[in-house]
Amino acid sequence: MKHDNNLNSMDFWQPEFDFLRRDDGTIIMRQKGELDDYLPTLADYLDNWANAVPERTWMARRHDGGEWQRITYAEARDKARAIGAALLELGLGPDRPLLILSENSLEHALLGAACFYVGVPYAPVSPAYSLVSQDHAKLKGVAEILAPGAIYADDGAAFDLACDAIADEGRVVINQRNVVDGAVSFDSLLEADPAPADLARAAVSSETVVKYLFTSGSTGSPKAVINTNGMICAMQASVRDCYRFLTVQPPVIVNWAPWNHTAAGNKVSYLVLTNGGTYYIDDGRPVPGKFDETLRNLREISCTWHFDVPVGWDMLAHALEEDETLARTFFAKLGMMFYAGAGMAQHTWDSLREAGRRATGREVLLATGLGATETAPFALACTEVQKRAGNVGVPALGLTLKLVPNGGKLEARLKGPTITPGYYRDPTTTAEAFDEEGFYRLGDALRPADPEDFSKGFFFDGRIAENFKLNTGTWVAVGAVRAGLVDAMAGLVKDAVIVGENASELGALLLLHDKALAMAPEERQEVLQDRLAAAAKASTGSASRVTRALALSEEPSFDRGEITEKGSLNQRAMRDHNAALIRQLYQGGEGVLTV
């Protein structure tokens, strides 16, 4: 990918590719060359930077909202050794991992470092499984798969019910504050003799499992994705090959995204660690009432690389327009802006590019990519300046991209050292995830930006499965949402098409039952409105709450693939074929129900 004249070509890759085209339409694409040498384990990187820059800040977070509390690389290694030894003493090991229930924190970071230093796998899971869920069903499913030897919950009081829900004989609970009866204090872990950690460290290799990250993917059932040292370190080597400025200036990052997701938990946090940078934990969020904290941090810290989901970038774009001081600080050292998790609106894209040019007098790269929890996640990346949002780029060095014709689209599959070996304790799903040549089935379709030149990158062309994401990056389980909405309509609706990909809220196209069609139009609208409002009120979050609906005016067609052989709606086909109706749904007007 060639670069705009305003960009320093030495800051980014300029890849060349080999292609293989098969008779069945399959295309194989791979960058020429091989990855530079890289260290085999994350423990090696921690040792390297603790020796080279012992006083440099590795991780920082504001203490009680005030001054930054910092951990240097030397302190990180010392604390990791002590905590690692304590975890081993508690009986943790390869088959008895650590389960982390809490959000990003210095303690969370140290526990993760301790685990990868001594070879204890760990699994950070969404705090919502503990604090929002009423039945803790997902948390119980996670615990059943992992059989963890210990659970970390920073606040013993807040997480007490969740810990009770997955209590098991011999399972230790660790609290940082409000330590409950029978739990171990986090501070006590720091007092352990580190000698056992050094012995365990010697046995850690590229094959050692670092963590398990849970993903429901397109099936809705939780799967524990195995993340080894080898795949993570190879992934970071490909990141350095792509974003070459990272090796010139140690990265400085301010980030809020949760570590139970691969984007922040793997790419962002280990981008800092493997390049000797500094990570400022942002306690803000891209939501009203919390974004001010993000802006406070960005006014103080000049990042070299910044990541957010599109809704966060949209809020930041408005702030950059209104605050020149913020813009000067934000762009002072910035190498690039990166978004992921969902598609970015064009007006946000345009605003951010203009803000960068206004503040620096040059083009600041704004880009995205494509990957998955199973790809560590860095897989495809774009480093060429684009006029429009959405180009996810080309495959990273070391990866082979296989594009397979599938239903009129090109299905993406990947092979290389950054791909997971599979799902923990789930050989059946692992086998299904890979094709006959060992390529991981990404589940996404790609459309070339230039059909004559695939080196120009690709656009995301939909999920092979039916689920999608909101613009917050939150996955929507379409089947569950559809079923709940149809039930709430109490016989007035035969089926529903759930829409809202890259939008902020869910909508639905309703296939009305004869009972509803027999009503007078005014009465039908009133009853549907009331039932939609009741369904929305009973929902628990944006990924399950349908806030607008519109009745379908035509019956779905079997010939157009809108109805399956089993008689159910093909959600993807219905969304594709009703684009105009979906636009009407979100623009509002006659017939649109809203709550």
Automatic annotation (TrEMBL):
Molecular function GO labels: CoA-ligase activity
Segment forming the signal sequence: none
Residue span, AMP-dependent synthetase/ligase domain: 47-424
Protein name per the record: Feruloyl-CoA synthase
InterPro entries, A to Z: AMP-binding_CS (IPR020845), AMP-dep_synth/lig_dom (IPR000873), ANL_N_sf (IPR042099)
One Pfam family per UniProt: AMP-binding_C_3
Listed SUPFAM superfamilies: Acetyl-CoA synthetase-like
